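note to self: the first set is below, dont mix up w the second
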Amino acid sequence: MADDSGSGTLWAGITALYAEPGVAEACIAAQDGAGADVLLLLAAALKTRHGVSLDGAGPALAAAVEPWRSEVVRPLRALRRRWRGLDGVDPLRERLKALELEAERAQFERLAPLLAGPPAEATAALLRANLSAVEPALSREHLDALAAALLRGWRPDPGG
């Protein structure tokens, strides 16, 4: 697929961010504990690092990805998780995991064009605001854990 929108660069940033220490665990905890969309959380964090506010964008972002997420990504994830620990299914689980990641990439392709917003100072406050914008139902506990994990590898200005 041709990538003239820059979404390939954004995807690379999202996968790198997910690999940072503690980020995956905090994202999965928010996903499992609050139904949060990991891709939306990572996109919000990445846009924060680029100094972009997503204030008010959350509903449009969620609406753009919800049909794909509920019909494709979540069923693949649920099946992969149900197969955990079953004898002889590890190779199939790995293939499901690859399909799930491919489905998330396709979900991101729907999301990427909507990730524009006004410039803002890249601070810890903007990170929390962007996370809350894309997942307004996040508990304070999940928001704090995500912010802490996402800030470990990147230090915004102290005034944020």
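second set (the one i keep forgetting abt)
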Amino acid sequence: MYKNLVGRAVLACVAACFLSSAHAQTPPPLKIGFVYVTPVTDAGWVRQHEEGRQAVAAALGDKVKTTYVENVAEGADAERVIRDLARQGHSLIFTPSFGYMEPTLKVAKDFPEVKFESITGYKTAPNVATANARYYEGRYLAGIAAGRMTKTNIAGYVAGFPIPEVLQGINAFTLGMRSVNPKAQVHVVWLNAWFDPPKERDAAMALFNQNADVVSFHTGSTAVMAAAQERGKMAIAYHSDMRKIAPDAQLVAVTHQWGGYYTQRAKAVLDGNWKSGNLWGGVKEGMIRVGDFGTRVPKAVQEEVLARQQDIAAGKLQPFRAVAGDVRDNEGRMVIVKGAQLTDEQILKMNWLAEGVQGRVTR
């Protein structure tokens, strides 16, 4: 009896030691934080980043623990939230909004052991990397679809702020339209807001009243799509596929794919080889995709857009390369000489609107 008890005790001890050792060898999950500038909705800018977060969790499983904070205003609120995430033990923090760049850099100085990813920012630090997507490539392709589909030769564009990223999109969209429809014009309405559904809707309605029959936008909600659906017009979805909101209005969607990049960066932290850097990826890298065509788009137009998408991926087509002739801005100044193309530095500093755009760069 005594021997049996001793034997059981020894086995229990061995088992306990084994489990304790196994537990000790299993590192805790990497805590990853995400900060979102708007609420998480069914579609839009934040939705695509939320899908990126979910992709990380699905790919890396128990190795990571992800969390997010939504509807965080740029500025002081952003700094407070980012700092809280760092204090809570998050070792990797993604901050996907241009206005988060400076708060991210400020917090990063106080938490040198934490890795930060400033999405759409351009300033780096030893523990701050930046990444952005070449949204303008998708805009050019969407412009081709709009140029083929418009009957009035007028497109509308609801825009947030006149920063280079937005100007790139407006100009690429216009150049894409006019590459297949030289008569096309693009009317711009500036909102000075990224997410204001009532203002977005009102702007779209105003553009429809100006005879625009297709509209694009660079804002954060689905309000423009809903307005197009309501008025029986056409629209270009941005950030996400928005056919649920505008099944009849959507021509095509320019979508952003963040899951691959986010997963790659999380794995780099886990593997101990994360480094700061600056990535600007587009169609080639799988960060920008055009598709999700609406039912009203003829097969020939779909095939044309997809063929041009392949050309961009292969480097055969660059939206800011002047092929047919000089490219001028809407005040008549030459901005790209025939046969030349803009460098990345020139694109990133863009401060003009292309010929065919009715609007001004107002700051």
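remember for set 2: The chain has a mean pLDDT of 92.
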